Amino acid sequence: MITVDQLTKTYGDFVAVDNISFACQPGRVTGFLGPNGAGKSTSMRIMVGLTPPTQGSATIGGLSYQDIPNPGRHVGVLLDASAQHAGRTGREILTMGALTMGLPKSRVDEMLALVGLSDDEAKRRLRNYSLGMKQRLGIAHALLGDPSVLILDEPANGLDPAGIRWMRGLLKGYADRGGTVLLSSHLLHEVELIADEMILIGHGRIVAQGDKKTLLASRSGTASALVTSLDNGGLGAALTAAGHSVTPMGTGLKVGASPEQVGRAALQAGVVLTDLRDGGASLEDLFLELTSSTQRDAFPAGAPA
Amino acid sequence: MSTSVVPPAPAALGRPVLDISGTPAIPFWREVLVELRKSYNTRAGVWYLLSIAMIIALIEAVILIVALVQDNVVLFEDNAFIAGTVTVLLLPVLAIMLVTSEWTQRSAMVSFTLEPRRARVVVAKLVVSLGFVVATLVMMLLVAVVATGIAEIVQPELTDWSFEIKYLFGFAIFQAVTMTIGFAFAALLLNTPAAIVLFFLYWYLLPILLAAIGGISESLGNTLEWINFQVAIGPLTEWEMNTGEEWAKLIVSGLIWIVLPLGLGIARILRAEVK
What we know:
The complex is a heterodimer of chains A (305) and B (275). Chain A is 34% helix and 26% strand. Chain A has 305 residues and is α/β, with parallel strands linked by helices. Chain A folds into 2 domains: 2-217, Rossmann fold; 225-278, no CATH class. Mean pLDDT of chain A is 88; it is low at 300-305. With 275 residues, chain B is mainly alpha-helical. Chain B has one domain. Chain B has 10 helices and 2 strands. Residues 1-14 of chain B have low confidence and may be disordered. The chains are: A alpha/beta (305), B mainly alpha (275). At the A-B interface, helix 2 of A face helix 1 and helix 4 of B.
């Protein structure tokens, strides 16, 4: 539904977005993931026509954003929850949106209820809103026109854990009903739980894309497992005898074998396992590795995942 | 749902298309309504409008009391144009805020996302600004009716209701031009205080400076007459445009004073990157 084709945006010598291409499909949540300043927001602004691209194009449902009539009815956009007049009340902001899009006033109440803003909160002015409340209002504004596409920049920013879980459910349900969702985040865990598809961006370039499995599989790592048992010594000996590397780690062992192999070795050795899990690379390792050249803070090579 | 994903045609496989056949574009009148709403749905807007009303009421009251106490003649015309003069001074700030607040408060991001044809949003704002001019005319006449009516009761023989409609037209044009210049500077600078200061300097101080410079030599003075819009519009506000030269000067200076800054200002908004 959203098609970004060889998009480039430069500011003088600085390349904010460097020849990126991807597509977001209906019925799926696409996560746009990258560290601060990677070019996520710039790309999203280009998608909705707020920033002209230097090269390439972004289309929504085959149309350039400018060519969509009454675009609020088709594309729900939340780029910055604070980008509203601070002196207007939450309800007034939604009312203006509804008026622009030609929606009945009742739609405002529906949206306020949907995002869990009380009547009392809706009467407050935006400058008295917490960031979490602004995000809820922004999501209400994006959903106002019952769009089939959602473009959300850091929507979970400022939400409390319950709020993040609520938003996850909301967006999942929205995608399940056939909607297209593109959301950006610099927090991997936020996106990992909700996105069907992930686009990793660093330094304006797409460094990897695909679903979680594909992304992890793309890394040719050797199998490893973390295991704790009632007899670490005996298990270690059995694993070493089977030709696997074994190193003590914490209260258990790190083994150069798959969890299945470790489990079979333990069964044969008759050792009771208390904990066994995959010690392979996490998505976070991958994320940090792929975007490391753009990370502001270098991280030590052996940092625990 | 107002939209649905149509089954993809063979050529568009894997690239679903947005069905926009059932969505008409936003009609212009609705955009004007939204912009009008923006002028009074903030505290700044409400208080500014109320302040203008209170200042006018105060000035009219003082002048009326002085006139009545001193047994002066009270003219309907004077009452109307006192109210009008106050609004000419203060109302352009409302037009300026209508434009600049979108940028200082960053709501332009939302406005231009809901209506990417930015020119329509800008023109809607201009229409609202000019709408305020019409409202001002009605209000100043109402204020004058009340003030003169009080005088009529107190001192009927010293009260004059005569009024020439041509002055109202002249005033309307001057007020509309003033609003438009304020609007142009707001679009050009996209910053409230800067636009207000520069607008007042440009519109009220520069013509005086130009006139003073024109006094130095006759040839310079003659040239500046083609540039000084405040002077060129003078006959029009008195409804006494007689010669072709007067019209020509009005058009030439109007192009320089209004069309140029307004054009540049609108061009800036249309091209600006909205962050």
